[in-house]
């Protein structure tokens, strides 16, 4: 007899899952017992459910396919909600398996432990943060339900939820069918591909920007080839940083608006044919633009739709679109050789002296390490560590760049190593480490040995940067270096650049134990990218009410001294009778 749990595990494995992260509870014990009996997928238990969700998310992001988080009903499942919400926002096919009361318990008439307002409360919470759901309370219906829900996760690249009453895992169950994705309309696909290529052909300054869907649908190699054949400038979105790294595609860099390289930002914002391929149109990707990008003239291919001007093509899966475009484009000819990826910006090696370590020194030290020993995957938390990652050489990077939840970095590093066997470098601030850094205590029993760089500035610096006067963003100094040994790793107290270089070299050569560099940063020390980001956000948030009625000369001064920026609607109104060139924002230098 093959049990329902075994069928579920086989179906997960067929759809790319390579492990399960979880924390059991009495409502989930029969399910976890089946995990252990069948050994279809390795089970990694962690210490707190947010980390279970983040690790499963990271496993999916780095290798493709489904990530799997298994939790108990109520206290466990509701603890993982933030990680699932992050996966929803960032398009990650994460599968949540939750234990639940057995049929006879649900019918007992008692209020059950772990229950909230009603037995369905949890189901309703997850209906808001998942693309599909099923309660596996009927072994006959279970195979179809499992197939429908898991295939929705992959097709939509979103989290899904399976609730498994504890009297069900051991029930006999038939095999889970494999459902083929619906075939899109060929004629509509052709019309869409033709119009898209015509628009790019007619544009004087076309640009290709790639985003997270390119990785979620496993398209990096094909999109790299498309970039070659289109022969136009290629950039990544902020969230898409690290995409196409291993493909040799000629990616020029990451678009960061006013917080990034001015010439790259100008090329993107000045494009009259901006192709957004799998790019989430979010504030973190576009809000700090000097020149507001008029998306009406962009070509947006996202969530199975393509929008060009007023034309909407509604059923265009990204893989099918990319294949249609490739079929229409001849490969590079000898006359037009393939573009090569620009070499990473040559940064001078770290000066290993007694100067205090700064965020940009961490970027330089990591670049030195990767240039000497090869690229390493990065798992980054939210905070200045993620802005600092923008100055690291392009390499595989996983981070919640849009939903922007803290606590992701360390569990994501563990999930990355569990799923791929590759040793990650984890970038995490002291505030985020306080949330989930303790999961490192689980590394030893699974043989994981990430290198963890703690940006220890004793503050929620990203918030303090906007309101330096507030005391509530100061955290006091925690001695993380001393805590490492108690969790089974090695800790290094790093204050200077010489200590940073030495500790990173030692960490690199030490395997089998996690390595934690507690890098003490001066109060207020910020990466150049965060500095530019803060300046840009402050400039964009300047109150400009009534500006349209001010004399253009006055407005030009405000724009020239950086108080407001050229794209502001009020500024444009004030100078509507003057040539557009009179309003020119100064480029921001750090
Ligand atoms: N809680 C959670 C779970 N996620 C968040 N993003 C926040 C709160 C708000 C928040 C930020 S950035 C930030 C907070 C509290 C400070 C991060 O501090 P730390 O990890 O020490 O990094 P750094 O000092 O480099 O800033 C987001 C942007 O709203
Ligand atoms: Mg901090």
Structural write-up:
This protein is α/β, with parallel strands linked by helices. It folds into four domains: 4-165, Thiamin diphosphate (ThDP)-binding fold, Pyr/PP domains (Rossmann fold); 186-328, TPP-binding domain (Rossmann fold, 3-Layer(aba) Sandwich), CATH 3.40.50; 359-529, Thiamin diphosphate (ThDP)-binding fold, Pyr/PP domains (Rossmann fold, 3-Layer(aba) Sandwich), CATH 3.40.50; 542-583, no CATH class. Helices cover 38% and strands 14% of the residues. It has 25 helices and 19 strands. The chain has a seven-stranded mixed beta sheet with strand order 9-8-7-10-11-12-13, sandwiched between helices. The model has no long low-confidence stretch (mean pLDDT 93). It binds ligand S1T and magnesium ion (MG). Ligand S1T is lined by residues 382-385, 404-407, 429-432, 455, 457, 459-463.
Quick check: average pLDDT? 93
Low-pLDDT segments: none
By helix and strand content, what is the structural category?
alpha/beta
DSSP strand (E) fraction?
5-15%
Overall number of strands: 19
CATH architecture of the largest domain: 3-Layer(aba) Sandwich
The first-level CATH class name of the largest domain: Alpha Beta
Ligand identities: ligand S1T, magnesium ion
Describe the strand arrangement of the main beta sheet, using strand numbers: 9-8-7-10-11-12-13
Concise structural overview:
With about 600 residues, the chain is an alpha/beta fold. About 40% of the residues lie in helices and about 15% in strands.
